[in-house]
């Protein structure tokens, strides 16, 4: 039998490290195992989110937005800049430093909360009377015996059939965040959240970017009105976006990649790029767990089968985040991690899946939570909509960032807020107010009655709430 702990957490991504910390706060002995490495082969907890996802992409989005502002936006503020140039190495270095500090922050939190961290991969070796046996393969092989196990191994990028990532010409999100030069022609297969954000970064830095999306509309999971606005703004910025594109063939050469595809009209098209990013989704990372050793059930797509409380088919084995059903979002994984730790400790664990927000960090930003108009119509739910454009918001005008609007959907009879959809400046921050309101089943009138400081972008939220009942004050 190995070292005995109450909870063994496999994976130190957003779900795993938060679950480990919460469990330790509740008085449980906790071990967390993770195999991410930094450039010096040291531990780099944080998973995809911190290392090659959420955090580095936002760092590059911020840097590239500042570069674009200096070149193309400063003049509107009376600031004239000539000869602005890009130092890509420094920009990437800043991104790497942000990642490193995040890694170090997680390790500090482990020490602060008494979580034992093991740098390596974990797999199920079997069971014993005391619990589940985990084999940890790192610099040396170790064994842990865990009364409870939380699986939080995350996901990996999905590749196209017969087209492996080489991270030189054919790039996943990891390679797309580390290009050492700006490609003149950049192709992206998939115009979802990852494709749009990466496309925005490299377009701002000088690439001619083409996105090929198989769905007939952009951001098909978002409210149709919001998605339409996003497509309009992205194209106006210079991104080429082809929806309804069906990939036929991809030919790679020493210095280029040629994609043959059918466009939305069924005509065959060819496009040649210097580099190609494949952003067609992600798949659960479960292959290295040796799940068969303990009889852990996976579904036909490789996800771990769980119930509504993240319990697997095995007693005291839990799974959270990207390896289970639901959206692959860092904050969803965190909420599940907290809830599972609470349940293990005998407390009430809560996740409201109906109010999990989704965000696209482009310019303008896109954010939504709850039901779309289309979903409510399909359900036969009577609702009222209130919208307010940022062009009528004083703070947005002062910022010279007036694109987009806020839309709030409320039940026609009870006035309960059922959904919120935003496109505009800093909506990634504004949406939290409405998510909080929805969590308490607030009405649009509740939001409208709250005093919002002036001038702020948040006033657009209040105005949209007023608009639900035809009471707009500033438009």
UniProtKB/TrEMBL annotation:
Main localization (coarse): cytoplasm
Keyword set includes Transmembrane helix: no
Gene Ontology CC: one annotated term: cytoplasm
Localization per Swiss-Prot or TrEMBL: Cytoplasm
Catalytic activity: N(6)-[(R)-dihydrolipoyl]-L-lysyl-[protein] + NAD(+) = N(6)-[(R)-lipoyl]-L-lysyl-[protein] + NADH + H(+)
Occurrences of domain FAD/NAD(P)-binding (ranges): 6-337
Assigned keywords, A-Z: Cytoplasm, Disulfide bond, FAD, Flavoprotein, NAD, Nucleotide-binding, Oxidoreductase, Redox-active center
InterPro entries for this protein: Class-I_Pyr_Nuc-Dis_Oxidored (IPR050151), FAD/NAD-bd_sf (IPR036188), FAD/NAD-binding_dom (IPR023753), FAD/NAD-linked_Rdtase_dimer_sf (IPR016156), Lipoamide_DH (IPR006258), Pyr_nuc-diS_OxRdtase (IPR001100), Pyr_nucl-diS_OxRdtase_dimer (IPR004099), Pyr_OxRdtase_I_AS (IPR012999)
Family per record: Belongs to the class-I pyridine nucleotide-disulfide oxidoreductase family.
Protein known as: Dihydrolipoyl dehydrogenase
Annotated source species: Oxalobacter vibrioformis
